[in-house]
Amino acid sequence: MEILSKLNSPFLYLLCGGIILFVAVICVVFGVRAYRAGKALGIDVSRMKRVIAASATFAVLPSVGILLGVIALSGSLGTPWPWLRLSVIGALHYETQVAEAAAESVGIGGLSLSGMTGEAFSTIALLMSFCIMWGMVLVIFNGKAYSNRLSASALKPDAAGQGKTGSASFGDSAMTAMFIGLVSAYIASYIGQIVSENGLFTFSGNWLPLAVAVIAALAMLVFLKIREAKNAEWLDSFSVAGSMLIAMTCTIFLAKLM
Fold first, then answer.
1. Alpha carbon distance 17, 7 (integer Å)
2. Same domain, 38 and 96
3. pLDDT for 86-111, tens place per residue?
4. Which of 34, 35, 157, 197 is the most buried (most CB within 10 A)?
């Protein structure tokens, strides 16, 4: 269709690809500088390598799901825009939900190429960008103060007054609480679809997300048990990514049962 050819135009590929390339170069530059700074501070090189391996694993495995999200969104929004959003600052669950809500608000009945227009795409793209930009904006004004606060409060003298031990800050507790709240909200939205009829509990919606969440939790529990039993600290680098991969694989088989 004509609208899809415009959304996949060479100009959009060049524009979005240039931004992605710039961000990728910045990541490499900061990665190299961080590694050199770690060596200058006397941090054990083997420990830094374990961190790099863990970060790479955690980035690569979830990217499979993100790639599927790009493919899913590209059918109605073209490839360059979802590629940019999910490569730089977007999140899979956020992008799909906001795009769907924006599509419904402009009256095209959800993400559908048949009803997509230039005006509808502009509205969807604007809403997807506007709702997630505030982290970048706010850090300009309070990022330095927050960083200084973390540096001042992250380490405190131990009970003997010798050396220093890490202490949980308000930011750590707030992030943990926010993450738990976010996960709880998503899970509760599906638990709320359980209805009772004549004493029997049934799902009025999709039970697959709940099943996947349970599988991921069980997989993480297995990793933790193995780690404790075998004293395999290296397993910490792969437990989260491994749990996600196991849950994603099980999703494929469970989807066939629906």
1. 14
2. yes
3. 888 777 667 777 888 888 888 876 67
4. 35
